[in-house]
Amino acid sequence: MATSYNFFMAEAIQTELSKNGVFLIRLNRPEVLNSMNRDLIMGLLETMNEVNNDPNVRAVVITGNGRGFCAGADLANGGWPNEKNNSPGQAAANNMEIGFNPLVRAITSADKPVLTAVNGIAAGGGVGLALSGDLVVAAESAKFKLVFGPQLGIIPDVGSSWFVPHLIGRARANGMGLLGEDIGAKVAKEWGLIWDFFPDNNFMESVLELAGKIATGPIAGLKAVVKAHDHALSTSLENQLDYERDTQKIFLDREEFREGVKAFIEKRKPDFTKI
User: Fold this and answer.
1) Which residue from 15, 84, 86, 271 lies 20 to 30 Å from 51 (Cα-Cα)?
2) For helices 255-265 and 219-232, what crossing angle results, to 10°?
3) Alpha-carbon dihedral of residues 31, 101, 162, 118, nearest 10 degrees?
4) What residues form DSSP beta bridges with 118?
5) How far apart are CA 2 and CA 212, in angstroms?
6) Predicted confidence (pLDDT) per residue in 122-165, tens digit
C-alpha cells in the first residue's frame, strides 16, 4: 500500500488518503459483514460529498473490512428514526429517500473515478453498492447474491434492479433475482458483472495498483468516459453522436488534452497530476 499522510477513523467508516491521490474507504462493521445501518450509510454519503471537494483526491476505492464487502441493509439494528405510525414499507421508503438512494447517486455522480473492491460476500443491497462503482473488481473468493425476492419477497434496491440487468441482461438478472444463488467472481467476470478479479492473498495490493494507475490519468476526462457510457444506455445512436460532439468540444479545449498531445509528440508519458 502507498504511504498515507492522513488517516481518519469513524465507527462505521475508515478512510485513508495516500500520497498518490488514492482515497481508500473501508466499510467497518465486520461483525455483521458490513451490513448497512444509518451510521454507515450517512458516513459514507458524507465522505463521498467531501471527496468531491478535495483536490488531493484523484481516485476513490470502496472496500470492506473483514470477511465481507457488504451483506445489504441491517434489518436488525438499522438505527433509522421511525415515526410511530409508519408501516415497515413506509419506514423503508423514507430511509431510501434520505440515505440509500442519495448514496448511490453520490457514488455514480462523483467527480473522481470510483473503484469498488468486493473483498467477500456482496448480498442484497450490497450488490447495488458494489455495482455503483465506475470500475468493479473482486477477490477470487468473493460472491454476489440477490436475496431480496427468494428470502424476503421484495424487489432488489440500492440500484441493483437497474445495475444488474443493464450489465448482464434480463435472463441472467432474473436468474440471480429469482433463485438467490451465489455468483462467484469468475462467473461474475464472464457475465460482465465485474471488470476483473484478483487472488485473495494480494487482493488489496492489486486493487491499489489499479487505482494508482487511474489516479495518474486525466481525472475529468476519465469521468467523462464513464458518463458517456452511462448516457448511451438511455439514448439513441443519433443522440449519442450529438452528445459526443458537444462533449469533445469541451474536453479538447482542456489542459489535459494539450498535455496528452504534447507528450505524444515528445514521445514521453503525459503528466496529468500537476494540471
Assistant:
1) 271
2) 110
3) -30
4) 138
5) 9
6) 999 999 999 999 999 999 999 999 999 999 999 999 999 999 99
Sole residue written with cell 470492506? 64
pLDDT of residue 78: 81
CA atoms of 138 and 186, how far apart (whole Å): 9
Distances in Å between the Cα of 113 and the Cα atoms of 58, 92, 143, 179, 233 are 7, 30, 23, 33, 19
Q: Work out the angle at residue 126's Cα, subtended by the Cα atoms of residues 123 and 131, and round it to the nearest 5 degrees.
A: 115
What phi and psi, each to the nearest 5 degrees, are found at residue 36?
-90, 110
H or E element that contains 151 = none
For the chain, the domains span 4-215, 219-265
Pick from 34, 19, 119, 31: which is nearest to 72 by CA?
A: 34
Topology classification of domain 4-215: 2-enoyl-CoA Hydratase; Chain A, domain 1 (3.90.226)
Q: Can you read off the three cell numbers belonging to residue 87?
A: 408501516
